[in-house]
C-alpha cells in the first residue's frame, strides 16, 4: 500500500541538486506548511521534498520562500543523529503547481500602454481616454 499526500506551503531553503548513483537528476528541498488546527496558534509542519528528472529541473528553478502546492507518494526518512533516531516525512513529488510567476530570462511582462515606474504621462491607455460621442 502507498500513502499519498497533497500539501501547500513555502520552500524553507533553496532546492539542492543531487546526482544519483545511476546518473538520474534529483532535487531535494524543505517545505513548510502551516498547521492552524492547533489551539495554541499556528505551527509549521516541515516536509522534505524529493523530485526526479523533469520535476527536479522544475523544482530547481524555485528558491527559498516560493509558494508551492505538491502531491506525491509519502515516505519516512529515518537517520541517527547524536545517538537519537530522527524521522522526517518526505514526499516524492509527482505533481506540483508553482505560485511563482516566471518568464523566460526573468523579464517582466510589458503591456502596450502600461505605465512604467515614474512615467505618469502614459498611466492611462489611450483607449480609455477617448471621448465617446453619441
What's the topology here?
Elements: E1 4-11, E2 16-19, E3 25-35, E4 43-52, H1 53-59, E5 67-81, E6 84-98
Parallel strand pairs: 4-6
Antiparallel strand pairs: 1-3, 1-5, 2-3, 3-4, 5-6
Overview of the structural elements:
By secondary structure, the protein is mainly β. Helix content is 5%, strand content 47%. It has 1 helix and 6 strands, in the order E-E-E-E-H-E-E. It has one helix at 53-59; strands at 4-11, 16-19, 25-35, 43-52, 67-81, 84-98. Strands 1-3-4-6-5 form a 5-stranded mixed β-barrel. The longest helix is centred in the middle third of the chain and has 7 residues, at 53-59. The chain is globular, with a radius of gyration of 22 Å.
Short précis:
The protein is mainly β and about 130 residues long.
Structural class: mainly beta
Mean pLDDT: 78
Span between termini = 70 Å
Beta-strand proportion? over 45%
Low-confidence regions:
118-124
Order of helices and strands: EEEEHEE
Overall radius of gyration: 22 Å
Helix content: under 10%
Amino acid at each position: 500500500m502507498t500513502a499519498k499526500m497533497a500539501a501547500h506551503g513555502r520552500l524553507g531553503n533553496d532546492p539542492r541538486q543531487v546526482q544519483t548513483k545511476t546518473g538520474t537528476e534529483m532535487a531535494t528541498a524543505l517545505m513548510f506548511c502551516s498547521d492552524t488546527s492547533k489551539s495554541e496558534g499556528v505551527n509549521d509542519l516541515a516536509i522534505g521534498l524529493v523530485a526526479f528528472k523533469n520535476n527536479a529541473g522544475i523544482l530547481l528553478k524555485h528558491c527559498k520562500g516560493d509558494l508551492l502546492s505538491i502531491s506525491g507518494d509519502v515516505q519516512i526518512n529515518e537517520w541517527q543523529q547524536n545517538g537519537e533516531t530522527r524521522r522526517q516525512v518526505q514526499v516524492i513529488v509527482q505533481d506540483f503547481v508553482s505560485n511563482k510567476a516566471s518568464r523566460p530570462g526573468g523579464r517582466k511582462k510589458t503591456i502596450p500602454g502600461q505605465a512604467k515606474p515614474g512615467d505618469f504621462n502614459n498611466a492611462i491607455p489611450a483607449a480609455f481616454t477617448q471621448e465617446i460621442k453619441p
